[in-house]
Write a sequence for this structure.
């Protein structure tokens, strides 16, 4: 009669909230100003001008639901400090503004706590409930969310809460429709979740719109419900703007294709490895007689900022990225279509996240949460899943370290991440049941070796590099971090692909 | 914070047995966990998965990391005197001492510009400042430049200073606390998981974090040495305990609050149950040698400066000024002798460390004198009378606990006796600072690791003392805008231990007498309500113009009464647990307390 599992999510959330409030004066990135500006725009301008306003360089580039969300918060902000709601008040950060904005992140994160509780409640049996509770707490205390939301500043906790709620709703036949609609609403809040949409599309198509017995029988009523629901949600989000003919303006804001292949510093994906090999080739190419493009050599930034141009390897076009992403999303979706179980669905969502993160154009390192968070829900399924999850947990979080570069936040990001890794990898190790099929011995050893390498890497990037080189060669630690993390993410992706198709 | 929990899967490694591996448990097995079905307060719930299967070597690093994270995050807030010219605050004092210690010849440390945070702590603080200053100067020499660095609020310097506090604490206080909790819990028959819960509660104690890591000071170094001294007493290593206590005194004179108890216990253990003169002589000798080693660098530095012709007081011309204390001594000494600069140096040090010339109390402190001052204006009495009164009252309050400890040198009584003595000093002695409440709080809080330490009675009282202690420091903290870390850290700790205002679960336990239960609950309840009311009033109401200090004064009055209750509780518990009085006197009470 294991009625209650300790600690409860609420208890962890309270302790975590205390820590997050203590982090109020910590470093905050330009995203803080971005969101302040959006509060100001939505509060002080009529709806029709939201997507045209450009006093600040941080224009509104999230879909309308997020803008509505900002508008709601701005109604409270008015009472706290009206000065933050003036569009021209750039870089305004009175302590009231900081308290208010930081506090909204903590409050809206309650949605995540609620969704995680839904996830725990949806598990059956005391063993799997205990596993679900541990996985839920690991997401709640995720260093990724701590670094990105509570220090760097964003609202991912709230939105991943919506995502998890939608994923959990997909577990039961009766709530499939709600799951789809919630995801549609999420897309209208932040369009990055489009990366996961293919898995939803295939799953809802197979499990909701087609008959479970035959793929040739269409359940028209379900199709109608889902279709009209989605249209209604998009109508509420984009309708007011469509009436004024602003859709093309919104799209140009949401999808700025003019950016480069790699973000400011490389997100740990395939292109990071590609760039790293290219840098190595600069040295090696002359010896084996390959031509080196001179203009790429002269680029001072060398992958630090802006466009990456390759010196030896061929340049990558956006549509190559696009095709590769689609290809690697399609492969797991085939299996999902044939066997639309919930576990396969979460696996497919995770693999869609992987594919878009690894091959996407201008991927941001923060997007790794798109992989880690859905994966956490099934990481404890058995030891094979856990084996694939482990390098991802290390690589994904280490790759977020460059987001915080101020010395005061250095102990927080490193110690907190180590704390989380030690605690949850240890807990997961005890909770994950043995797998039905054999594990890959080599893969396990490699992943242990990989995790060990992270220690000298962190030491080098944070300490040794500064002592040896001072301020010069600043790209080196970043390059090592992203290449190291890329190896881990790619490795865990390959590992999980194998697990997904063999279990 | 979900550690692993038992599962059908067998872990690869078996947890090693940890019992009896440290030589003091005498091969006894670790006491078994009590059979409790559910955690009775949130901290226990958070550590719940670590019960049974997890070895403490897996749990301890996690605890230390979590404690460190909270400390560092709290340190992101402002510090005492931040951007408050002209004189700034404790932060500037500590920084300035690093400046003095690294930039000036040793003999000038205690003489240099006394108006600007002149060094007034014993020599170990000066050496510690020297070490920190040397390390800091490697990073940025401008931080500790003579004169030009005064009042610096370089953010990088703040990070360095915060790091020195954490590093000092992790080198001294934390190992001492870990070892003390292990020894004390084993001696009291407390299981290792329960001891870990107590350790977290002790490390998350809000008062120390607020004063050291937020407001800024190095109290944990001194408290750590005292804990190490107590811990050596538990292990029966009396000589080490003397060495650690000298170190504590050498770091901060406040450790004198405990001196009587250290003395009573060490002397008592030499006399009871049988006289052991050898031990007594050894302790005396080691204490003397430790003091000698403590002042040795100062003496050598002074002699060296004399040889190089560096004057201790370059600002003074003409004849030597008289000694600040004991001016008569000069009649018997040759002021030109080689040893005279040393005498002068040591007298100056003592003079700086013990400021007899100041008043009975400096600021508003929640002790007896300040509270009495609300009723009777003490200023109209001559200061000699007040000094004598303070001395007598202090002696009266600390005699009972130390007599008990002297006649019953029982290891398990140490925290209670230390706490009672320190409360006595805090309440009645001369020149008390509100931050000194950390001294009684430390030994009282480690009671959590003892027998029934996490039971309701002890938890309620330890929690009450800590929360009241933080509350009396609120005026100090709010002066530098530290209300948010104050609220977060105290409420978090209250929540973790299931204390008011977050929960009433620490009251009304089964099995004890109704009178005691209701008495404790009503008494504490009245104080908690007062504290909450006070916060509400302080936040929304300005005090009347003719009484600008009204809120602070109210705080002081309530605090003094509450602390007196804590003193009485510690003394009462000490009397009961020492079994020094015939049992028939209060058999009923014993029953009530030990249930």
């Amino acid at each position: 009669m294991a009625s209650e599992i300790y600690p409860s999510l609420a208890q962890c959330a309270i302790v975590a909230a205390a820590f997050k409030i203590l982090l109020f004066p910590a470093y905050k990135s330009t995203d803080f100003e971005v969101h302040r500006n959006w509060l100001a725009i939505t509060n002080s301008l009529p709806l029709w001008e939201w997507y045209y306003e450009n006093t600040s360089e941080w224009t509104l580039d999230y879909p309308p639901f997020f803008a509505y969300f900002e508008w709601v918060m701005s109604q409270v902000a008015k009472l706290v400090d009206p000065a933050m709601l003036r569009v021209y008040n750039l870089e305004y950060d009175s302590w009231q503004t900081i308290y208010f904005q930081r506090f909204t992140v903590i409050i809206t994160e309650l949605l995540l706590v609620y969704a995680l509780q839904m996830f725990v409640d949806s598990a059956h049996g005391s063993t799997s409930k205990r596993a679900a509770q541990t996985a839920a707490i690991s997401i709640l205390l995720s260093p990724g969310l701590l670094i990105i939301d509570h220090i760097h500043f964003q609202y991912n906790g709230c939105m991943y809460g919506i995502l998890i709620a939608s994923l959990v709703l997909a577990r039961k036949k009766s709530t499939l429709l709600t799951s789809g609609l919630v995801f549609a609403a999420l897309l209208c809040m932040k369009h990055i979740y489009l990366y996961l949409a293919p898995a939803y599309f295939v799953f809802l198509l197979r499990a909701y719109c087609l008959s479970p017995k035959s793929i040739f029988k269409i359940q028209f009523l379900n199709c109608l419900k889902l279709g009209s629901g989605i249209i209604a949600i998009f109508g509420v989000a984009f309708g007011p703007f469509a009436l004024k003919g602003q859709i093309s303006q919104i799209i140009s804001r949401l999808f700025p294709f003019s950016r480069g292949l790699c973000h400011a510093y490389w997100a740990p994906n395939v292109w990071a490895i590609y760039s790293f090999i290219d840098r190595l080739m600069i040295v090696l190419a002359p010896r084996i007689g390959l031509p080196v493009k001179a203009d790429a050599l002269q680029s001072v930034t060398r992958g630090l900022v802006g466009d990456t141009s390759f010196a030896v390897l061929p340049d990558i076009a956006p549509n190559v990225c696009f095709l590769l992403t689609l290809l690697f999303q399609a492969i797991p979706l085939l299996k999902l279509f044939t066997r639309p179980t919930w576990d396969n669905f979460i696996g497919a969502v995770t693999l869609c996240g992987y594919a878009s993160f690894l091959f996407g154009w201008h991927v941001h390192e923060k997007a790794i949460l798109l992989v880690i968070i859905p994966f956490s829900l099934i990481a404890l399924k058995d030891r094979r899943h856990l084996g694939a999850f482990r390098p991802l947990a290390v690589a994904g979080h280490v790759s977020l370290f460059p987001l915080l570069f101020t010395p005061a936040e250095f102990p927080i990001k490193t110690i907190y991440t180590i704390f989380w890794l030690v605690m949850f990898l240890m807990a997961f190790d005890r909770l994950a049941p043995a797998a039905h099929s054999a594990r890959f011995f080599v893969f396990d050893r490699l992943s242990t070796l990989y995790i060990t390498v992270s220690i000298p890497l962190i030491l080098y990037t944070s300490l040794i590099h500064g002592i040896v080189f001072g301020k010069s060669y600043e790209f080196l630690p970043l390059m090592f971090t992203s290449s190291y993390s890329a190896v881990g993410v790619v490795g865990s992706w390959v590992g999980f692909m194998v697990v997904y198709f063999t279990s | 914070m979900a550690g692993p929990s038992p599962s059908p899967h067998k872990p690869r490694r078996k947890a090693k047995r940890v019992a009896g591996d440290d030589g003091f448990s005498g091969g006894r097995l670790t006491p078994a966990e009590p059979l409790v079905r559910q955690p009775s307060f949130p901290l226990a719930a958070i550590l719940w998965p670590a019960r049974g299967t997890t070895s403490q070597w897996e749990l301890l690093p996690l605890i230390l990391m979590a404690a460190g994270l909270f400390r560092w995050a709290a340190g992101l807030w402002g510090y005492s005197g931040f951007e408050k010219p002209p004189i700034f605050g404790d932060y500037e004092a500590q920084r300035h001492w690093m400046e003095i210690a690294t930039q000036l010849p040793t003999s000038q440390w205690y003489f240099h510009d006394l108006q600007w945070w002149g060094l007034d702590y014993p020599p170990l603080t000066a050496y510690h400042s020297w070490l920190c200053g040397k390390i800091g100067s490697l990073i940025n020499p401008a931080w500790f430049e003579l004169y030009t660095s005064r009042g610096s609020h370089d953010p990088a310097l703040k990070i360095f200073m915060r790091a020195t506090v954490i590093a000092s604490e992790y080198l001294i206080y934390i190992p001492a606390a870990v070892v003390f909790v292990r020894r004390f819990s084993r001696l009291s028959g407390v299981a290792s998981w329960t001891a870990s819960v107590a350790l977290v509660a002790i490390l998350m104690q809000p008062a120390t974090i607020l004063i050291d890591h937020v407001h800024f000071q190095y109290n944990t170094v001194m408290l750590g040495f005292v804990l190490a001294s107590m811990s050596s007493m538990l292990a029966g290593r009396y000589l080490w305990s003397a060495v650690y206590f000298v170190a504590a005194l050498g770091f901060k004179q406040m450790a004198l609050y405990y001196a009587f108890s250290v003395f009573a216990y060490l002397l008592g253990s030499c006399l009871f149950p049988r006289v052991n003169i050898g031990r007594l002589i050894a302790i005396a000798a080691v204490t003397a040698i430790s003091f000698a080693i403590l002042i040795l660098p100062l003496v050598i530095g002074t002699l060296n400066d004399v040889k190089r012709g560096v004057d201790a007081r370059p600002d003074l011309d003409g004849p030597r000024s008289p000694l600040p204390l004991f001016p008569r001594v000069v009649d018997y000494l040759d002021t030109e002798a080689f040893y005279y600069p040393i005498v002068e140096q040591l007298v100056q040090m003592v003079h700086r460390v013990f400021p007899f010339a100041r008043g009975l109390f400096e600021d508003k402190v929640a002790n007896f004198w300040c509270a009495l001052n609300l009723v009777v204006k003490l200023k109209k009495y001559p200061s000699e009378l007040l000094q004598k009164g303070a001395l007598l009252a202090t002696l009266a309050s600390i005699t009972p606990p130390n007599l008990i400890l002297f006649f019953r040198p029982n290891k398990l009584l140490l925290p209670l006796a230390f706490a009672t003595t320190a409360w006595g000093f805090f309440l009645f002695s001369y020149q008390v600072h509100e931050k000194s409440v950390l001294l009684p709080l430390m030994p009282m809080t480690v009671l959590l690791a003892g027998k029934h330490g996490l039971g309701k009675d002890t938890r309620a009282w330890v929690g009450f003392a800590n929360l009241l202690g933080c509350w009396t420091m609120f005026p100090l903290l709010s002066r530098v805008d530290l209300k948010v870390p104050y609220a977060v850290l105290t409420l978090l700790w209250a929540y973790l231990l299931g204390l008011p205002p977050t929960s009433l679960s620490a009251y009304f336990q089964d099995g004890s007498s109704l009178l005691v239960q209701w008495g404790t609950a009503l008494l504490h309840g009245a104080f908690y309500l007062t504290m909450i009311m006070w916060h509400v009033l302080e936040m929304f109401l300005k005090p009347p113009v003719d009484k600008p200090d009204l809120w602070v004064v109210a705080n002081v009055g309530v605090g003094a009464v509450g602390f007196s209750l804590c003193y009485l509780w510690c003394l009462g518990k000490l009397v009961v647990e020492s079994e020094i009085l015939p049992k028939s006197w209060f058999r009923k009470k014993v029953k009530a307390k030990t249930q």
The mean pLDDT of chain A is 89.
